[in-house]
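Example 3.
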Amino acid sequence: MIHLLEPKWFQGRGIPSWRDKLDLLLHRLNISAPSELLDKAFGLSLSDQYWLKPFDNDIKYDDINFFDNYFDYTEFMEASLSKNSKTITNEKSLKTPNNTTDGMLKKAWIIEGNTRYLLKGGYKNEILQPFNEVLASIICERLGFNHVTYFIDTYKDMVVSKCPCFITKDTELITAYQIKNNMNRHDSIEDYEEYIKLLENQGIEDARIKIENMYILDFLIMNEDRHLNNFGIIRDVNTLKWLDIAPIFDNGQSLNIQDYNDEEVMISGHGHLFYEIKPFDEIIKVVKNIKRIDISKLDGVVEEFDDLLHKYQHITNMSDRRINKLCILLNSQINKLKKLINN
Ligand SMILES: Nc1ncnc2c1ncn2[C@@H]1O[C@H](COP(=O)(O)OP(=O)(O)OP(=O)(O)O)[C@@H](O)[C@H]1O
Ligand SMILES: [Mg+2]
């Protein structure tokens, strides 16, 4: 399934070319391309267990993996997230799982206690992403959807989201993109059905319900970014058994973040259903029995979100107007879902 021997696969393991402020990061790391990082720490990651073992070295995975072994994260965190940072001179700072993180947003793995957390900033000057991540966690928690829990944290004078690593030393994330690699491309509903069938055949319990839950969340927060690398499954790396759907993660690109307009509230929007970009009102139709959702569990969520945005206003400088519009939008999506449930 995963074409491990392809150099393309290995190159694709590095920080992507579309990472926000990549040039600045490379400058601060004192390197010229993300690929230079790939052999600094054996290609190790915190999202899977692949690594490169030098042929003349008898080093053991147990001694080097980042799930168990400490890594020096402070300098990379600063280079990635800080507005001002010096150039890294300590080679040790390049031996971290940050060398293999995917995604557009500035981010950094850190360690607190024994837990590995991923910190993510906003895109360019946008500061809404971390709050959307937390909103998604609140909604998932209330509706009982399996999810990664995101918190707000501050780093220097910036707001970031923080979530624990959902992979362990015995598991790996396989994204829908990797799974779909070997499947034919049809129309999005057929892709969707084929994907669910494949997961069910691999023994994943309630695969359909769990994937539906992700699309219900996307509808509620108008998540525009559910591309094929933003969901997937968890596989046991020892038995290769497909254990479960990956908990819902990466929900920041939501609530009209790209098209915010000070004058009006845009109440329509488009999300992803596999390769296709469709209106949310269409995507939600994949849910077979929407009546299973107890929408009353979302009572008070808008107020909670409103409080959260106000709580950090002294750092974000988000206007009252924008906060108000975000709450109107969220409220309108909840009401739309309510109508679908009651009809
Ligand atoms: N909590 C986590 N535990 C383990 N791996 C994670 C975790 N969160 C993210 N990842 C991995 O890091 C990648 C990037 O994270 P994420 O998708 O949150 O970033 P992003 O910059 O918002 O991405 P995008 O480009 O889709 O907007 C994910 O695709 C996944 O492989
Ligand atoms: Mg992502």
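The first helix runs from residue 7 to 11. The longest strand covers residues 158-164.
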